[in-house]
Amino acid sequence: MPIEKPTIFNTVKEIRTRLQEVRTQGQSISFVPTMGNLHQGHFDLILKASELADHVVVSIFVNPMQFGPHEDFDAYPRTLATDFGALSELPCQSIFAPTVREIYPKGVSTEIDVPSLSTILCGQHRPGHFRGVATIVNKLLNIVEPQYAILGKKDYQQLQVIETMVSDLLMPIKIVGAETTREPSGLAMSSRNAYLSEIQRTLAAELFHSLNTLAIALAETRHMSPILKIERQRLTDAGFIVDYLEIRNADNISATYLEATRAVILVAARLGKARLIDNLVVHLTH
Amino acid sequence: MPIEKPTIFNTVKEIRTRLQEVRTQGQSISFVPTMGNLHQGHFDLILKASELADHVVVSIFVNPMQFGPHEDFDAYPRTLATDFGALSELPCQSIFAPTVREIYPKGVSTEIDVPSLSTILCGQHRPGHFRGVATIVNKLLNIVEPQYAILGKKDYQQLQVIETMVSDLLMPIKIVGAETTREPSGLAMSSRNAYLSEIQRTLAAELFHSLNTLAIALAETRHMSPILKIERQRLTDAGFIVDYLEIRNADNISATYLEATRAVILVAARLGKARLIDNLVVHLTH
After folding, report:
1. How far is B105 from chain A (nearest CA, A)?
2. Residue B107 has what DSSP assignment?
3. From CA A130, how far away is CA A169, in angstroms rounded?
4. Domain boundaries, chain B
5. Global pTM?
6. How far is A22 from chain B (nearest CA, A)?
7. Which chain A residues contact residue B109 at CB under 8 A?
8. What CATH number has the domain spanning B7-178?
9. How does DSSP classify residue B197?
10. I want to staple B231 with a disulfide (CB 3.0 to 4.6 A). Which of A66, A133, B210, B276 is the partner?
11. A164 contact residues in B (CB cutoff 8 A)
């Protein structure tokens, strides 16, 4: 089946008008929010979106509100033309690529937060980050009004924040988590991998290696402190600055995993200019 | 025209199903969120709602999240049967009267706030109040998905918080502010007037008297500090505990009114068990 090229919308008004037509035609809508610099991980989200609904909307917006003052908002890779080209080969009908002014015409007054989830793990290292994420996703969902929104499990904490927000605020939307797409080395695909040199990129696969080592250990024991310490040290010795390497309840990352049926092993570590995150969910047998 | 009795819904699922039918029939929806104990002020909001859309939804929900730990959540007047009776005489098609558990099944994790507006005036005296208001109204709007929501101007700061939230979050809803309904004495109608003795009720009209005195003075001068001080003292001497009596820019209550084209005079004062608020908007000539 030949794929029709997607239409690009830059304003809230234009995409709303178009999606109102789509709805009037009885079509369902699925939505993939992105910050652009699209890679295979995004493509897999879009393929999943196309399985769930008739009309796929992809947004491309680097959201200033989720970047800290000393983070990489300015440096974040912006590759709009390449992204549009890639999307024209994918089952995507509408692209929403607004300016910052279009999304924050009056700056930021209203904030959405899930404090219990947004102050731990990455939130501890990136204060305000998840408030920025929750707020922008809420806004985008209000613009697109999809039946489904598809988010990658690579950003596990982000997915938890968004799922909690949508559930708590009773938004009539189903959030779908999609599996992490990995390089053959095991490295989770991420736009921030572009910051890595070739040598660093090879080294970066050690994060996934650590997650697997811990998963194997978890099948044998709950006395994980010593092995977590060893893996943290191993990564540090390899050249990472480890923000955290922890095990949590997979259903609620703010809780201990000791009573859980599923644990998630989460890592965040800096390597050169890149801050990399990854995780692995493990089913526990008690 | 004989008025059809409204249908009462207690669950999110039931009212959503009903309103989906209403939308499919091509009808527009307007929404009046209330905490019940309905009086003429609410009736006027409902009449306004019926002028704006085909199907009027009234919610009755005393929202625990907007009450402080030492406030009147438990004492707040709950008069469901009387309210249902009153609504059956009004142009209202659907009543949404959920339990607290229905609205907060998992407690409160997600919070919506407009810090610049929620920490001043009433927000200074009721920490967390407007966060509770913004969050519940967001949830109710997500359930009802109306074209219009009608809120009273008596709660001026609340109206500003909601207008800002809906605008910032790009919610596809028009917020309509409705004029304050007053007793013949000038006292703004409020469910909390029920806390007043007969003598206190007579005295309470002094708040509106002060607002008018200040409005007249504002037509003459911008040197309002002395007269504000006099009015605060007059109310205190009469038996009020004045939380604030202030003049702000009517378009943005966080700003000074000196350059504004419209000012709003705002008062909050406690009398016996009641905390009363009122305001008056004044057009300024420079």
Report:
1. 8
2. B
3. 16
4. 7-178, 191-283
5. 0.96
6. 15
7. 114-117, 164, 168
8. 3.40.50.620
9. -
10. B210
11. 109-110
